[in-house]
Amino acid sequence: MKTCVGLACLAVAVLIAAVVQADQSRPNVLLILSDDHSVPHVSCYGDPNTTRFGITPHLAAFAKEGMRFDRAYTTAPQCAPSRISIFACQSPVALGVTRFAQPARGDVRFFTDVLRENGYWVGLDGRHQHLDGRISEADHINQALREAGMQNLESRFDHFVRSASTKGANLAKVPGRVAAALDEVPEGKPFFLYFGFNQPHRRFGLEHAGIEPEQLVLPPDWPDLPEVRVDYARYLSELRDLDQGFGSIMQLLRERGLEQNTLVIFMGDNGEALLRGKGTLFDRGTHVPLIIRWPNHVTPGSHSNALVCGTDLGPTILAAAGLKPTEEMTGVDFLPQLRGGKAAGREVVFAERGWHWGPITRTDGLDLSRSITSARYRYLYNALPERSYTPVDMPETEAWQAVKTAHEADRLSPLHERLYFQNPRPLVELYDLQEDPYEMNNLAGKESLRAVETSLRQQLESWMIREQDFLTLPTHALQNEE
């Protein structure tokens, strides 16, 4: 009898050990998002400004320990739709969240729901994640959101902080915030933690110590004006703060012995609030840094040219945890590429733009556009071509006011006049990203690229139909224009 009891106890012990070992084999996941941060603004992407002034040393070190993705894109050039699509693993169009601060329906599942149902502790902290509306809203709007089941994050996450700023003096509190969140994780449970930074979102601080505006290298699609240079220096100063905060989180992981079994993902949530950036579907609007470190799984110092979309993060995280996405999740698992394989991934990525926080009479408030990006080309569809361009979050800045003053005084170059003040804009645009990375030469209508343009337009229209887009298809818009 004692022998049977002993064997039974031994069997239970072996089973418990196996379960514990299985849990330990599942990686912790830390997702860190910067706010309004485009490629190339991490030195590992070869940016001369962040390199010269030593803006991102911690991110550069992080890239040497993991994989840098050179072709990562968000689904929208705005915080709210981009972030919701990351968690829901679907496009903003399919989710019906193209309007700024519109949450997904209450029955839309997040990849974190799948993690939690399979034994993960899940948490949200740091900068507001935009998953259930704005930080503060009118009472009747909040009531409508609650009644529709769209404000439910407290019940979906084990740790939930609606919004904690990382600006100014709050930057020093970042490691404490992350430590407090990790203290809640039950022993033996793997965790997923989102942590968001406010940097380098506007409003920028006025100081930019050690960053000399006159020494900055400006992209050729920006007017070279003193105010633009100062604005850029202030942006880089915000980026330097971001890097400092990121470094403090990495140090915390090391101190807690979590470094080896934590899959760390750093990504920009959408494009930077600079000229021809946030709010546009140009490269600076949706092309973001993505760096991933996972010791013993990802080759240190590696890089990938695979096309990656924000919707792909969730399926990839789930695959790393040995789980599968739901049928509704349309993101593509890029774990094979992350592990250095040659598995087929995406051939194109899509993006959209809808209403942002601002007046509906200018592009900073309302623009309706769609894009498709392939390995070499980008096709843009502007459904409101007569809308005059105004950069998001910049209309009252000294930089944009200086650009407008130069325009009114006829002091801008013909190139910059066309890029910023052409009205109406082209209904469709086509750019060769290899030959024209700053998208200054619209090739739409060129006979030599007719096949390329037609293929991209048809793929975009097929996507719009699948996603049940409310916009007129480009084909129909072009026919009516004729």
Automatic annotation (TrEMBL):
Pfam families: Sulfatase (PF00884). Residues 1-22 form the signal peptide. SUPFAM superfamilies: Alkaline phosphatase-like. Its EC number is 3.1.6.6. InterPro entries: Alkaline_phosphatase_core_sf (IPR017850), GAG_Ulvan_Degrading_Sulfatases (IPR052701), Sulfatase_N (IPR000917). It comes from the Bacteria. This is Choline-sulfatase.
